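User: Structure with N-succinyl methionine, tokens only please.
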Amino acid sequence: MPSPGDAGPVALDGFELRVLHLPLVSPFTTSFGTETVREVIVVRALTPDGDGWGEIVTQEAPLYSSEYTQGAWDVARRWLIPALLDRARLAPHDVAETLAPFVGHRMAKAGLELAVLDASLRAQGVSLGAHLGAVRDRIPSGVSVGIQSDPAALVEAVAGYLDEGYRRIKIKIKPGRDLADTAAVRAAFGDIPLQVDANSAYTLADADTLAGLDDFGLLLIEQPLREDDLVDHAALARLLRTPLCLDESITSAKAAADALALGAAAIVNIKAGRVGGHLEAVRVHDLCRAAGVPVWCGGMLETGIGRAANAALAALPRFTLPGDVSASDRFYRRDIVTDPIVLDDGHVRVPTGPGIGVGIDGGALEEFTVAREVVRR
Ligand code: SMG
Ligand code: MG
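Assistant:
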């Protein structure tokens, strides 16, 4: 049985970085703003045995986290890539350790690690899912629905996703757009699997409003308070019946262990980018599994590259709740992979080909590229 430590070393000739601008099929509004174009960095690891692909899931502005595109681009080309290219041969499980001296920048590190991991696994003919420990060949798909103009528009948007077959609905909330939006969705669709995500928009002073959400039988409330408010999350958890789930706060396996020890979370959202890579994401999964805590796979509006890798991760055993691994067409008219993830009976397939298991559509990649740089050894 392969374990995350097993992928073989690769000889790195260099990395190609691209900034992509992908138009969204509809605007995506969260408590911190509205996006109409997804800005993302695609990483290509160049090796004599073939390329590997990864994705740095930063946004244009540091609104979800402190990381943002130009910061990730700079730290990758100035510090992270040179450190990796210093090693004649590099195994995927040595990437995080090689980059550990550089504080933070987890999304940048995760994108580089995924590219190295993909190159290694493609060379070995092993799929990412098999490598990480996937136990399913398909996963139930949830969808994250942005804040709409009003509750009626939200109900219409949710109706469309339910018609498509999504197995779980998550709605974004913020102060002033919480109880009425949630009530409208419950009233329209009854007992569907429903959860809300606040992206840190509240403080403990809003506990009464958040307790009002207890009336709606939600699966969970995701990240109501700030990233570093673990103690306040624990205090809030004691005031609510609805389970609290942390997203932004879970920056590593250590952060997850601390949050669980404090009682700040009963459920954990796992995102490889946020924790510094897929191998750390597996460690978060493993510790939650040992603690009996359910996890689900978050999303960062990934292209087909990150989306394929998310599907592989979400196939691990403790991912017992549907994640934000929606079909490519939930965000994009055209993806940059040859076989974008589709929804089939409310599920998405876990790719089985070598590495992330999807091919790159060179034409689409070119179409959306707004900046490109190659860093060689
Ligand atoms: O990929 O389906 C997706 C997006 C899911 O809502 C989603 N992500 O906080 O969980 C979250 C947000 C962060 C997106 S900001 C780029
Ligand atoms: Mg979230």
